[in-house]
Amino acid sequence: LQVTCPSNLLAGKRILVTAGPTIEAIDPVRGITNFSSGKMGYAIAQAAIEMGADVTLISGPTALTAPRHCTTIQVTSAQQMHDAVMAEVRGQDVFIAVAAVADYRPREVQSQKIKKHADTLQLELVRNPDILAAVSNLPDRPFCVGFAAESDQLLEHARKKRLQKNVPLLAANLVSEAMGGDDSRIVLIDDHGEHPLPSGSKTLLAHMLLQHMAGMLPPSTT
Ligand code: CTP
Ligand code: CA
Predict the structure, then answer these.
(1) CA distance 214 to 111
(2) Given pLDDT bands bounded at 50, 70 and 90, which one contains residue 177?
(3) Which of these, 207, 222, 165, lies nearest to 190 by C-alpha position?
(4) Rounded CA separation 103/125 (Å)
(5) What average pLDDT is seen over the chain?
(6) Residue 156 to residue 123: CA distance in whole angstroms
(7) Is 131 close to ligand 1, i.e. is its CB under 6 Å away?
(8) Which atom of ligand 1 approaches the CA of 157 most closely?
(9) How many whole angstroms separate alpha carbon 96 and alpha carbon 146?
(10) Cβ contacts of 175 within 8 Å, gap of 6 or more
């Protein structure tokens, strides 16, 4: 399938994207993380650049090369990602939250490596800030796009998530169809309902998602 889209569909738009996992340190050599290759987020950043946008990518640790012609900020933890997003969000037209942010972090980070002793070890976890919710609650918020990766009951969870997060557009996928690979399958959910995209490469899906999104953006005033 050929991707044909006007290359200027997002010209002049400032777009902030989060991608990849976060890692929450336990001690100097260990952490808690989510499984995420970062491929979908990087594909979206790349596609947005190709469509003329001015893109800032805030990425957790991945094995990917940062796209060219884009400002990339590397972070490790959810708190760092949150702080980087909050520092960059002013003046952005669009925020696309693709990152698989760890929902919890260890309450305490041990400064020394934890040595193994007992047969069991308990970690106490505390909630991380919800970056997408924080952005979508800003008084002068950009157009917000969320992702939902679910293991089951995709549409049910995703519909609920879009309303809870108060975002106009949410891209839902099943972890079994998306994680790690170059291909994925996505259902877009907006006020008009559900729009399943054909399964394909993350590059193709990124273009289709951005094309759909471009039609939802308020007309430029500049
Ligand atoms: N998200 C975020 N910050 C977090 C958690 C999630 O910005 N601390 C964003 C993700 O990037 C994604 C959306 O919120 O765009 C949904 O993430 P998801 O993990 O599916 O939803 P949660 O609200 O965390 O709910 P749960 O994990 O319980 O399903
Ligand atoms: Ca989560």
Answers:
(1) 47
(2) confident
(3) 165
(4) 9
(5) 94
(6) 32
(7) yes
(8) 29
(9) 6
(10) 149, 150, 151
